[in-house]
Amino acid sequence: MRKNNLVLTSEQFRHPFRSSMHPAIFVETPPKAKKQSWWQDEDVHLFTISFVAFFTVFITFIA
Questions:
Q1: Which of 19, 36, 54, 60 could form a disulfide with 40 if both were Cys (CB 3.0 to 4.6 A apart)?
Q2: For the chain, what percentages of helix, strand and coil (3-state, to nearest 5) are there?
Q3: What is the pLDDT of residues 9-56, one digit of tens each?
Q4: Strand segments (E) across 1-63
C-alpha cells in the first residue's frame, strides 16, 4: 500500500492564487487583551458569589 504525504516539501507546490498575494496578508496579529473591570476580578467575583449564596441559603432557612 502506498502512503501519500500531505505535507508540502517545497514552496513551489503552493497554490498560484496564494502565491500571488502579498506576504503581509498572512502575518497573524495577536488579539488585544481586554482590560477587566474591578468587579470582574476573580477574587471579587468569587467573594460576591459566595456571599450571595450564603445569604440566600441563610434567609431561606430563617423564612
A1: 36
A2: 55, 0, 45
A3: 666 667 788 778 888 887 888 888 877 777 667 888 899 999 999 999
A4: none
Residue entry with cell 503552493:
14
Cα 19-21-25 angle, rounded to 5 deg? 120
What is the C-alpha to C-alpha distance for residues 34 and 57, in angstroms, rounded to an integer?
35
Closest CA to 26 of 17, 39, 13, 38: 17
The cell numbers describing 34, all together, are 481586554
33: cell is 487583551
Residues in the chain: 63
